[in-house]
Amino acid sequence: MFKFNLGGLISPVQMLAERVISRGLKAIGRHIIVEAFGCSREVLDNPMLLRKTLMDAARKANMEICGEIFHEFNPQGVTGVVVVKESHLSIHTWPEFGYASIDIFTCGSYADPWKAYDHIIKALRPKSVQVMELKRGIIWSGG
Amino acid sequence: MFKFNLGGLISPVQMLAERVISRGLKAIGRHIIVEAFGCSREVLDNPMLLRKTLMDAARKANMEICGEIFHEFNPQGVTGVVVVKESHLSIHTWPEFGYASIDIFTCGSYADPWKAYDHIIKALRPKSVQVMELKRGIIWSGG
């Protein structure tokens, strides 16, 4: 995905560009899929830290939080979901492999899922990341 | 994905095949991404029905439920997430477009995300569906 920034702000042009696929088609949602490898065991096994990270990421990305569920596994690992009006953020961690799977799904023009991504990656500090953005709900919008 | 069934049961061979990518590599998680178009407005705007559908889907797929959050929007639309020990199920609906985006993410050998998929599709009865399975967390497992 081509991404441009204006001093950290998202321009109205960029917001529009993210949703308009081509003439007459638009995407309802944007879904960022993240594979984070080489994270520290301590971070991936800390539900309070991961909860704060996802909640702060949602706020920074201009999302409105509806609720959240975080679950700590025995002997290790955390699953957490933050439900937002603009869709959801989720994280599932496997500290034994240094791996976290993260999904950031947003709709609308005001939330910027890549701001949430930046915040989460800064907190997790993975040694390697694979990331992709899927457009969800591509529909005919006229034009 | 090649999928085979033995009278509706999943064989141990199939469960293993779902996780082993090739010699020495396995996937920690399986993520089914569903784009459902042409669903009825009544179904997509019914949070109680969608909640029951996802909860039943989780149980049928052999998942253990940790919690759930469903949110109804004004004037329309529902967002819902069921967090399970094996990861999560989510749905976001846009009744005005007849569209629902559904994600089913499972880990482990006992949960079968495709059973959850079957149950959800039966309830939503979309006119068209796009579906894919992503392997999440592909790691070296020796061998």
Order of helices and strands of chain A: HEEHHEEEEHE
Largest interface: A-B, 31 and 31 residues
* Stretches with pLDDT under 50, minimum 5 residues of chain A: 1-8
CATH superfamily of chain A: S-adenosylmethionine decarboxylase
Oligomer: homodimer
CATH architecture of chain A: 4-Layer Sandwich
**Number of structural units classed as domains of chain A:** 1
At the first level of CATH, what is the class of chain A? Alpha Beta
Structural class category of chain A: alpha+beta
Q: What is the rounded Rg of chain A?
A: 16 Å
Question: What percent of residues of chain A are in strands?
Answer: 35-45%
Query: How confident overall, as mean pLDDT of chain A?
Result: 90
How many β strands of chain A by DSSP? 7
* N-end to C-end Cα span of chain A: 23 Å
Tell the overall outline of chain A.
elongated
CATH fold field value of chain A: S-adenosylmethionine decarboxylase
Q: What composes the largest sheet of chain A?
A: 7 strands, antiparallel
Q: What's the helical proportion of residues of chain A?
A: 25-40%
The number of helical runs of chain A is 4
